[in-house]
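Notes for week 9. Today we move from apo structures to complexes. The key idea is that a small molecule is not decoration. When we ask for a structure prediction with zinc ion present, the ligand SMILES becomes part of the input, just like the chain. The input block below holds both the sequence and the ligand string. Read it once before you look at the output, and try to guess where the molecule might sit.
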Amino acid sequence: MESVHKIISARWVVPVNESRDILENHSVVIKEDKIVEILKTEEALTKYQPDEKIALPGHALIPGFVNSHGHAAMTLFRGMADDLELMTWLNDHIWPAEGKWVSPEFVADGTRFAIGEMIRSGTTCFSDNYFYGEEVAQEILKSGIRGQICSTVIDFPTPGAETPDEGIQNAMDLWEKYKDNDYVMPIFGPHAPYTVSDEPFKKIIKLAKENNILIQMHVHETQTEVDGSIEQYGKRPIKRLHDLGLLGPHMQCVHMTALNEEDIEIIAETGSHVMHCPESNLKLASGFCPVHKLQEKGINVTLGTDGAASNNDLDMLGEMRTAAQLAKAVAQNAEALPAYEALALATINGAKSMAKEDKFGSLEAGKFADVVAVDLSDLESQPIFDPVSHIVYATTRNQVTDVWVGGKQLLANRELTTLPISELIATAIEWKEKIVKGREQTAEK
Ligand SMILES: [Zn+2]
């Protein structure tokens, strides 16, 4: 018998592989940080000798979620300003609060807090567009999750960067330090077409192409953005980005509402990726991303929660359900984005957009053991004709019981193993009190 580290045996294994299998009574065999084999449980237990045997007879194992767009530290602003449209929300609430509060300490505390929430809901890799990337990197490494860090580049001064050039330098420094790291994945994060002018874009694309660095950006978040671009540049944002040479397989376009046929054609032709954030788009009334149309054109669509200040949670199970339902409503077609494809959006498609589909995003031999166990044994999950249907349409994040990243267990029977949950909660409460006090002082002046 071959010695391995872990065998996780479950009622179902949903690998999210090319053939979209659902395997019954199978085991995931793990050696060090990788999956060695996925095979029938009775065979696994005679072929391999594990250090640890985990039996989950009422569970389904799925690949860890890849939350492909968010602003982790903004979780500390959760519920601070709701029921406003995007520009009012940003101009009157979020940007002033960020100007006042965002510091390396805020980012470290907020990111750690967000990672706790993400692990508890089955996310094993997240993407982060924010400030102070080194603080984010440290929190990623301490917690054991994976994270793509998109260093912000924007025309006006931000925390950690007075100019776009400083933002670009921050991204390059982070990339130099972590380019070979499988947990911290630094890329460029220019904010949006309406906040970044042509010169910084030209510098970013030159460096991205020379060094093979990815780019993530908010694009076509609202119709207002599209109208503004036509007025300022005489063309739609997608066309402008295309003319600047920014689009391609290295490009992750977040939101993508208000698209016309030509926009979709350009995205398909260039092989750019689309990060769909349905709950943020719904809550800010930003618009609708035509997921079904994009998929019909062969475009890789991924799933993201966006920041908790506009969602208001970091729950990929909930996001996946919203995505599946919204795709049908937008396409006026109940066959749009079926359950298994919604699960692919939330896992392997995210890995593809990060050019990491050979490393994670599905449960397959040779990939990292980024595995999530979902408990389907209770009343709310019965009867089970199809476990994938339940995972997408009838499962909440409280049913996520165990999470492994690179074979290391980060959630064990709903308990975080690398983060102190009571400290995370206490820190969030402290920040809320500071923010409220600050607001009262501003009001008095
Ligand atoms: Zn965003």
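The domain at 65-353 is CATH 3.20.20.140 (TIM Barrel).
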